[in-house]
């Protein structure tokens, strides 16, 4: 089976404050760093050698995963001194690859949760004789994505960035962030400067007559770039809607990690995760949310579709819906936080400081 590159250098700006202290691929989803799920799925597909292309908070990865042997992998790490974009990051790790010029190399974006049949993508690449093969998925509203139309044989005909008018939306197929490159194609990417594989590499290859093949796989797919998407992805992993061999426990409505304390009358639903050493108090209700290690949800609090950072505290009777509470932050009692409110790491919100009237 082929080797792989995982692009994990992004700053995770849309996911802040959860990425202030932790790179996005290392934020826990379903009880383990999200990257663990990607590595485990790659290993299950037969991948044995993976190069992590790191940049932001690069020092966090190797102490956790080491040489990869605990996952049955050999992992190497390459750090960008300056951000190089997706194409530049791929080119930057090329010296660590072992594949011959015509052999396939898998490439994954580090923020996509997917049920992609990895083996089928490699098979498509090899049987079609493509220079690059792309995983494509279909979405109802493609305006936020790059469109990738294909012909009847699956060959890519164009790359259309984020169309806005109905006339521009010629397909519902989008670039889903997983690729197979012929090894020699990686060496054609320019060095020493930022390169976008989506905006530069792929269009340039198409313009020069290269064979780019698309494989539509419309199984589970989610971009975990926002807090709302990240919490949903974690819950879907816990409930078994998204596949991963790395979830530490049985699939179901809840995942309570070792050392956590949950009051007998507290209610955990919707794929909620309670991290190691966290506490959920009497009468609290937590639905579809992630409560990270050492955090506290006090008695009577209601937490829905929210992300609670490490060591954070949600006060008694507070109501959170679609909120993010950063590491070490303290939301006092009797607060109400809704619709994307974010509390920064270490911040303190006094008791009753934020309330919504009943007619809002």
From TrEMBL:
Gene3D superfamilies: Hexapeptide repeat proteins (2.160.10.10), Spore Coat Polysaccharide Biosynthesis Protein SpsA, Chain A (3.90.550.10)
Stored Pfam families: GMPPB_C (PF25087), NTP_transferase (PF00483)
Superkingdom per UniProt: Bacteria
Domain Nucleotidyl transferase: 4-236
Mannose-1-phosphate guanyltransferase C-terminal domain span: 254-333
SUPFAM superfamilies noted in UniProt: Nucleotide-diphospho-sugar transferases
Family: Belongs to the transferase hexapeptide repeat family.
Name of the protein described by the UniProt record: NDP-sugar synthase
């Amino acid at each position: 089976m082929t080797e792989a590159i995982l692009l994990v250098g992004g700053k995770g700006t849309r996911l802040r404050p959860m990425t202030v202290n932790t790179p996005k691929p290392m934020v826990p989803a379903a009880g383990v760093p999200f990257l663990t799920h990607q590595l485990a799925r790659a290993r299950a597909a037969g991948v044995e050698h993976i190069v992590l292309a790191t940049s932001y908070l690069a020092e966090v990865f190797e102490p956790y995963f080491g040489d990869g042997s605990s996952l049955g992998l050999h992992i190497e790490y390459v750090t960008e001194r300056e951000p190089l974009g997706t194409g530049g990051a791929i080119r930057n790790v090329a010296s660590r690859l072992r594949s011959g010029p015509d052999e396939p190399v898998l490439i994954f974006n580090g923020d996509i949760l997917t049920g992609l049949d990895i083996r089928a993508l490699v098979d498509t690449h090899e049987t079609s004789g493509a220079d690059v093969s792309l995983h494509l998925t279909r979405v109802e509203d493609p305006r936020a994505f790059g469109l990738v139309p294909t012909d009847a044989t699956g060959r890519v005909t164009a790359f259309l960035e984020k169309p806005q008018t109905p006339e521009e939306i010629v397909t519902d197929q989008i670039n889903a962030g997983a690729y197979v490159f012929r090894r020699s194609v990686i060496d054609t990417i320019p060095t020493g400067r930022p390169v976008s594989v989506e905006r530069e590499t792929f269009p340039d290859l198409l313009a020069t007559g290269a064979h780019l093949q698309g494989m539509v796989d419309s199984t589970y797919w989610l971009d975990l770039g926002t807090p709302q998407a990240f919490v949903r992805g974690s819950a879907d992993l816990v409930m078994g809607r998204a596949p991963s061999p790395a979830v530490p426990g049985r699939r179901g409505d809840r995942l309570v990690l070792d050392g956590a304390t949950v009051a007998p009358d507290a209610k955990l639903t919707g794929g909620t995760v309670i991290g190691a050493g966290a506490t959920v108090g009497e009468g609290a209700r937590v639905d579809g949310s992630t409560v990270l290690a050492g955090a506290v949800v006090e008695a009577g609090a209601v937490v829905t579709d929210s992300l609670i950072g490490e060591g954070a505290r949600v006060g008694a009777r507070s109501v959170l819906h679609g909120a993010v509470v950063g590491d070490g932050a303290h939301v006092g009692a009797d607060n109400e936080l809704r619709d994307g409110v974010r509390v920064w790491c270490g911040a303190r919100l006094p008791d009753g400081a934020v309330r919504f009237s009943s007619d809002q």
